[in-house]
Amino acid sequence: MTDVDVMLISEVLGVPVRKLYMLSSDRVPRQKRGGSYSNYHQSVIYTGRTKKKRVLTVPNGFLKLVQRRILDRCLSKLPVSEYATAYRKGTSVRDNALLHTGKEFIIKLDISGFFDSINDDAVYMVMKQFRLSPRATSLLTHLCVHRGVLPQGAPTSPYIANLVMKHFDEHIGAWCAERNITYSRYCDDMTFSGSRDDLLGSRLVGKVGRTLYAMGFTLNREKTVFAGSSQRQTVTGLVVNEKADLPREKRRELRQEVYYCLKYGVREHLSQRGSSDAPLRYINGLMGRLAYQLQQRPEDEKLREWFVQIKKLRESEGDK
Q1: Nearest to 242 by CA among 94, 92, 100, 108
Q2: Which end of the chain has fewer surrounding CB within 10 Å, N or C?
Q3: Is 200 found in the same domain as 125?
Q4: Interval 94-130: pLDDT, tens
């Protein structure tokens, strides 16, 4: 006999119970020819100037649809901590950076292998908040994990990660407030700001490290940063010494790219760079970077003008 709460999940998600269990077991039925295959595939992307390798574990279309429904219809009803500034509607990297603007001293800490360190037991504890039967709670858990951990690439993973970290955020946030320290966490990046004496005198790094270790996480010591006001202080990619703004070299680099594209054309610009990028793909990426900079500098009319001009270039390139 099917569990009543399992039937409820099926109704809420609009997916038959049999298919939910098929997805939760990470397999699909055998095809007429060949064997079964995983509901996930791995996608490798390269980020930043150093082309750092990042592996995403991405669900197939059907599982992704179900996970989006779990996120929208279930998980989003559970509140996350106010100290978590990533993966929340109405918050951005700029909002996170503004919290630490104009501070005397900043400490930045990073969690190693963040998503891979969140196992199915931690996800099960999140799902228990719905007060469903153990069978239904287990079903929801296994619809959102892959090989026992939270997959980086599933639409449910970021919000679940915030829910897993809620107790940590509240505990560390209160601890910091008692010591006049400002705290925020953007995914696996934690930032602490305030006076030099308050930050260094609190032995903050040890406190955070021990608290994370008790949860199964470890600090990436290589990414620990101490920055005084006489140094460049960056938080989630923005310089925050005086105001939250993009690094000067980033603005200059983008300005040069736009200039060359408008003066010589995209194809000639790519040729001079020795780039093998397709023109349309390159323009889309350039527009994405312009849009990001506009989010950080909405008052910059020149940026807005460049965005319009590059958009026209894209339209002309698309007609070719």
Answers
A1: 100
A2: N
A3: yes
A4: 999 999 999 999 999 999 999 999 999 999 999 999 9
